[in-house]
Amino acid sequence: MTVWPRLAQARTGGLAVLVLVIALLPLALTNNFYYEVAIQVGLNAIVCVGLNLLIGYAGQISLGHAGFYALSAYTSAILTSRFGWPPGAALVVAIGSAGLVAYVVGRPILRLKGHYLAMATLGLGIIISIVIATEDRITGGPDGMAVPPLALLGFPLAGERVWYWVVGVMLVVAVWLALNLIDSPVGRALRALHGSEVAAQVAGVDPRRYKVMAFVISAVFAAVAGSLTAHYAGFITPAKATFLHSIELVTMVVLGGMASTFGAVVGAAVLTTMPQVLTALKDYEMMVFGAVLMLTMIFLPRGLVPTIGAAFARWRK
Amino acid sequence: MSLLTVDGLSKQFGGLKAVNDVSFVIEPGRVHSIIGPNGAGKTTLLNLLNGIYAPSEGRIAFDGHTLNGAPPHEFAAAGIARTFQNLQIFFNMSALENVLVGGHLRARRGLAGALLRLPGRVADERAYRDAALELMRFVGVEAYAAAPADALPYGALKRLEIARALAARPRLLLLDEPAAGLNPTETAAIDELIKRLVASGITVILVEHNMRLVMGVSDHIVVLDYGKKLAEGTAAEVRADARVIEAYLGAAQAEA
After folding, report:
1. Around A112, how many Cα atoms within 13 Å sit in the side-chain half-sphere?
2. With an 8 Å Cβ cutoff, is B77 touching chain A?
């Protein structure tokens, strides 16, 4: 009784719970479709853990992260299928180029604040989306394109069961990196910018440098998930590059709880599985999606994990 | 050898010269106060002295280096820290973490080491925490170390800002109304804290309305009125200055 909450609060405890859930979940995954959903949860969670560093911790908004996700997915796809690159090398270049784009674009646009930054990132996402949809000779256009499978040490990664573990390991690594960062001088500088930009500056934090850093890190997390998705699914379409997907990602972060790494994972899990659960309401899916966001903002403004965590802490007292 | 030299400093906002051709010299190891009626330009002057505003004219030299037009984080790197009149606390962090941010420039800030939590970093974190706790003890808020910053009472937040500023190990500390909103007991404690700061070798520039505090701790006082330097000198000299009395009490009373 006393050990459990203390364990759950510690960062290592939270990580242990995540590992345990990932390790035991296959017991409940009785068919390939369940595996597919679980893999999708994991991939979205990787994006959200990164995006939460930007939105929840550094306090900067991005409505264009589907752009980085798709940019990396398409770079992987194009380099492997059009130029015959080995998937591993393509993966590294794809993630690197998404990070580079984030850096080059982030430097000018992160001078902007609030609504203006939202507009600028929105524009960036739309540009990437349009380029992917219209450059059909290299991207396949709206029809999408096929992507060869990924191999690890000469062993091709195929099948839901293999991919489940690949994504599971990547998610644990992503969460571990994020937790480490938050609890370091770099992470505290990011959070300080959110708390009071002027006080952070006066303490010696260069706002531009740290905002760009958060932007690039979050873009790289999205890029990792993007490239993995391309190889896992074996086929990509511009749908994942759209504004709507960017909004979905932000919704996951907000629902799970801003400035909570585990919240980002929970938000991704809830909003990825919900449409599958609500298949009966297929036509109303986006309405329910919107309603969930509104209700969360009204009743749980801090998001699922921080609100439940606070309630749990009160109950213990 | 002066620590800070301000020469012909002006700051213009549209048609208003909030700070108008102000010059003074800050000597190390002393308490300098900037006083003046409301709207005299005291906070604007502080904002110029740590780079929040860039001067329209004039020069700021700290320890022989010109800092004109540098961003605030470069003023911080040069060794100037400050607190704020309207609290600028990181309410999204714990009290201890607020102080840890103050030590930002003294911490190892490599991204790879932070992401991978390289072995040396765990020991670093412990050292940063010990140093921050020590500062919280120095200003008297150690009881709140683990508390979220938004759980602290107002007086403790004022002190927390001082601890955060001290975490940078500054050579010059700018205190913007540290006693505003405090009761006489708390104000006396701030008075005592400022004296301990100076004893530890930190030079202080104090902006404050509480004249008892100012007159008690200051070695040197600069009086501003309508953005201009009206007078400067020791507490006794400033108190006896007819122009200062006039600015504070109005011409009629000065004549009476």
Report:
1. 16
2. yes
Q: Let me know: does B146 contact B97? Beta carbons within 8 Å.
A: no
Compute, in degrees rounded to 10, the torsion defined by CA atoms B82, B85, B89, B95.
Answer: 80
Pick the residue of B43, B88, B126, B162 with the most A CBs within 10 A to test the interface with A by mutation: B88
Across the range A179-206, mean pLDDT stands at: 96
What structural domains does chain B harbor? 4-79+170-255 (3.40.50.300), 95-164 (no CATH)
d(CA B125, CA B180): 34
Whole-number pLDDT of residue A6: 44
As beta bridge partners, residue B59 has B7
Q: Is A195 on the interface with B (CB under 8 A)?
A: yes
**Are the Cβ atoms of A191 and B90 closer than 8 angstroms?**
yes
Pair B25, B6: CB distance under 8 Å: yes
Q: Do B89 and A195 touch (CB under 8 A)?
A: yes
Q: Which two tokens stand for residue A163?
A: 């991919």
B20, containing H or E segment: strand B16-26
Burial class of A153 by CB neighbour count within 10 A (0 to 12, 13 to 18, 19+): exposed
pLDDT at A153 over 80: no
Per-residue pLDDT of A72-82, as tens digits, reads: 999 999 999 99
Write the single-letter amino acid at B194: I
Name residue B5's beta-bridge partners.
B25, B61
Does residue A275 contact residue A286 with C-beta atoms inside 8 Å? no
Q: Assess A224–B contact: CB distance below 8 Å, yes or no.
A: no
CA distance A110 to A186: 18
> What's the gap in Å between the CA of A160 and the closest CA on chain B?
29
Give the structural domain span for A189: 3-316
pLDDT in tens, B135-167: 999 999 999 999 999 999 999 999 999 999 999
Q: Count structural domains, chain A.
A: 1
Burial class from Cβ neighbours inside 10 Å (0-12, 13-18, 19+) for residue A253 reads buried
CB contact under 8 A, B93 and A203: no
Instruction: Write the CATH number for A227.
Output: 1.10.3470
Q: Determine the Cα–Cα distance for residues B115 and A183; give it in Å rounded to an integer.
A: 9
Contacts of B229 by beta carbon, 8 Å cutoff, 6+ apart: B21, B22, B23, B24, B222, B223
